[in-house]
Amino acid sequence: MLNDKRVRIITGHYGSGKTEFAVNYALRLAESGAKTAIADLDIVNPYFRSREMEPMFNEKNIRVISSSVKGLSGDIPALSPEINAAFHDKSYQVVLDVGGDKVGATALGRYHVSLDEEPYDMFFVLNANRRQTHDVEGAIKYLRSVEEGSRQRVTALVNNTHLCGDTTLEDILSGQELCEAVSRELNIPIKYVVMERKFLEKLSSSMQGEIFPIDIYMKKPWED
């Protein structure tokens, strides 16, 4: 993971699991000893926001950058000026959790000048079980719309095909087939294959992409 660029942008369709991946990624960085910051740029989606994990991040000494205006019971969708500091303070390994569609990705677009000056990785998290990204044509169309909104280019794909608690090995393998087809079409590599740890022993180590086991942290809205 530390071989990735210092700034990692995580994006993908709503429900792709991009925020769960971003949370696990930041925790893995911190566990490796890296000085880590996670910035929540998702100012559109009210659910599955990485900033909800701030107490845990604080325990792990992970810097959390989110809304610039916080209240007692919620926050206002305003981006913090601390984000610029994360770009320029090169002592930090940075994870950016970006909104899940073209509109959400426009929040990242305002930082395109800083990103043009800083090498970055932009990971497109793909869940083959989402309606708009269940085939090659739809996945590419969605990926291109996120690029347009963010004014940045995707550098790698992440297969995170799941159905929450109902995920099967077949789901992951089906998602891998889709990822490989998109990878061939766009000439973009698959960087990670994400799954819960219970699937580790069932997957071939020869899959395209690095196996990335995760723990589930994001609480579902109906579990409140």
Please summarize what this structure is:
The chain has helices spanning 18-31, 54-59, 82-88, 102-109, 112-117, 136-150, 169-186; strands spanning 7-12, 36-41, 63-65, 67-70, 75-79, 93-98, 120-126, 156-159, 190-196, 210-214. With 224 residues, it is an alpha/beta fold.
Mean pLDDT equals 84
Largest sheet: 8 strands, parallel
In the CATH hierarchy, the architecture is: 3-Layer(aba) Sandwich
CATH class: Alpha Beta
Which class of secondary structure composition applies to the elements? alpha/beta
Tally of separate domains: 1
Determine Rg (CA atoms, Å). 16 Å
Distance from first to last alpha carbon: 33 Å
* Shape summary: globular
Percentage of residues assigned to helices: 25-40%
User: Tally the helices: what do you get?
Assistant: 7
- Stretches where pLDDT is under 50 for at least 5 consecutive residues are 68-77
Q: Quick one: CATH superfamily?
A: P-loop containing nucleotide triphosphate hydrolases
Number of strands: 10
Oligomer designation? single chain
Describe this structure in words.
By secondary structure, this protein is α/β, with parallel strands linked by helices. The protein has a single domain, classed as P-loop containing nucleotide triphosphate hydrolases (Rossmann fold, 3-Layer(aba) Sandwich), CATH 3.40.50. The longest helix has 18 residues. The protein starts with 6 loop residues before the first strand and ends in a 10-residue tail after the last strand. About 4% of the residues have low confidence.
